[in-house]
Amino acid sequence: MIQEYAGDALVRAAHPAPLEARIGARWLTLAAEMAGLTSGSWRSSPDPVSTGPVTLPRVATRTLGPDTGSVRTARDFTTVTLQRWGITERSQDIAIVVSELLTNALRHALPGSGDSRARRPIRFGLLQPGSCVLCAVADPSRAAPVLQTRGSFAETGRGMQIICALSDQWGFAPSDTGKVVWAMFRRRLTLRQVRTERGVPNMA
């Protein structure tokens, strides 16, 4: 199991580095572009009550094997990474969606052993450009994910429904080596957080 980690990249106001250079992976950059994170939302500020220097975007990636154990590996990697980044809100939803993305990639996107694409790994990444979190999976297949209608008692085929229900936005894009499927989670502010950000005192 090969682990890649692109450490926290400092966003400099003057002479910012190109998006791909700041993320460090073309496939993850593609997901960020498709999610609209190259617009103004890319530079959205972190939690205003947090302290310390701004080190955004945060990026963590991992290369996974073709075995089913990769699903748990990715889920654990997600949980640890989000804890290290100080992200607790929606962490369970993100972990569930990561499991579904990896399960779909293992079940539908891996070619047969005789196919030259079999040597291409599955890559998984987390990106925090500001007040949202993007998770993405790159696999060697160009087949588009399909949102299927399943009955209430169906035991399989509901992965994309779960991804659609738990994430705020999801999508996919063809890449040089297959495709990238991504899901984005925005921060959901409570009334207290909204008042804090607007400078309105909270009533006891």
Q: Kindly provide the radius of gyration, computed on alpha-carbon positions and rounded to a whole number of angstroms.
A: 18 Å
The dominant shape is globular
- Please provide the ordered H/E string of secondary-structure elements: EHHEHHEEHEEH
Strand content: 15-25%
Q: How confident is the prediction overall: mean pLDDT?
A: 76
Low-pLDDT stretches? 1-16, 40-51, 152-156, 193-197
Q: Helix coverage percent of residues?
A: 25-40%
* Structure summary, number of beta strands: 6
Number of helices: 6
For the biggest β-sheet, the strand order reads: 1-2-3-4-6-5
Distance between the termini: 51 Å
The main pleated sheet reads as: 6 strands, antiparallel
How is this structure best described in words?
By secondary structure, the protein is of the alpha+beta class. Helix content is 31%, strand content 20%. It has a 6-stranded antiparallel beta sheet, sandwiched between helices. β5 and β6 (178-186) form a beta hairpin. The protein is globular.
